[in-house]
Design goal:
- The chain has 140 residues and is of the alpha+beta class.
- Helix content is 27%, strand content 36%.
- It is built from four helices and five strands.
- The chain has helices spanning 25-40, 45-50, 120-123, 125-136; strands at residues 4-9, 54-64, 73-83, 87-96, 99-111.
- Strands 1-3-4-5-2 form a five-stranded antiparallel β-sheet.
- A hairpin with a 3-residue loop joins strand 3 (73-83) and strand 4 (87-96).
């Protein structure tokens, strides 16, 4: 799987008085895209947590190119940009139709329930392999 695609209809509560999506809501959409992408890879985030692996956000970058509006149908495209033993970077693009609205990245550390970093390939070889396979298919 090279990338995941998740569709979201902009809700009224996500917009300001002018009908423009409030910038913080894009971060929620990134979370939805990432969660669905992991599910498509065969490891829902809820299952990761049951296995004692948590993803802690260590960095967020978001470039807003064009606004989204109330009732738009947006597509969140999620890919793996990089993966290392204890961290992963997801890259996102948010579209309205063919129009690119936003480009973003989130970096996460793999940690255990005590918040200590874990080496994913040792802790969960299945998930490590799935993430590696997905990442290797994505050209830069």
């Amino acid at each position: 799987m090279k990338q995941g695609e998740t569709y979201i209809r902009v809700r009224y509560s996500e917009t300001d008085k002018m009908g423009v999506v409030y910038h913080g809501n894009y971060l929620n959409w990134l979370g939805v895209g990432r969660t669905e992408y992991l599910r498509e890879l065969g490891m829902p985030y809820s299952e990761m947590e049951r296995n004692g692996i948590l993803l802690v956000v260590t960095r967020v970058s978001c470039r807003y190119r064009r606004p989204a509006y109330y009732d738009d149908l947006v597509k969140v495209v999620t890919k793996i940009a990089a993966i290392q033993d204890v961290r992963i970077v997801f890259r996102y693009e948010i579209y309205r139709g063919e129009e690119l609205l936003t480009v973003a990245e989130t970096e996460h550390a793999f940690v255990n329930e005590q918040g200590r970093p874990v080496v994913l390939k040792k802790t969960n070889p299945f998930l490590w392999k799935r993430l590696q396979e997905a990442w290797e298919q994505v050209p830069d």
